[in-house]
Structure formats: structure tokens, C-alpha cells
Amino acid sequence: MLKKMLSALKLSDSTIEILALKHDQSYPLHQCFSLNKPLTCLVFGFAPKEVGMNIDAAKYTPISFKDHRIIFSDTLVQLINQPALKKPLWQALQHIYLKK
Predict the structure, then answer these.
(1) How many structural domains comprise the chain?
(2) pLDDT of 46-62, one tens digit each?
(3) The whole model's pTM is what?
(4) What span, in angstroms and rounded, lies between the C-alpha atoms of 52 and 41?
């Protein structure tokens, strides 16, 4: 499902990175932002505080942070089991990548 969305936005596997975490793991998201290139992070199933960000963020609402963008989402399992959740994710991705 995610691969189809990214393909529709003309993003190839070489332009994205996937970081998969279990809920007992931690990863400060700001480490991704230390790279010197714009980055879009899709965070599935974690709240901002769980990835080291002290912000309030609504799911499926793109957040800008310097040159980077973040979208918090439900888990991939929830997206698959509840198809209505795919639409707000798709709209958020379109907002970022198809914005003129």
C-alpha cells in the first residue's frame, strides 16, 4: 500500500529510507535531521514524544521543521485494516509532493 502511494508520487525506492522500530525501541527523530539534505519522515504508530520530539502534532498533518517535513500516522496495520485511514495519509503526501 505504501509502495503504491510513493510510486504514484513518482518517488523511487532510492529516494526513501524506511526505519522500522518496535515499541520497546527508541530513536530520536532529530538524528535524521542532522543530515544535510531535505527529508520527509513518515512516522507510523508513534507519537511525537516517543520519537524524541516535544511537540503536539495531529496525525496526517504535515509539520515543517527547518528543511524537513514530518507526518505522523496510524500504524501500517491500522491503515490496512481500516481503509478510510489511507485517505488522510494520501492527502498529506499529496500536499507535500504535489504542492505547486
Answers:
(1) 1
(2) 888 888 888 899 999 99
(3) 0.83
(4) 14
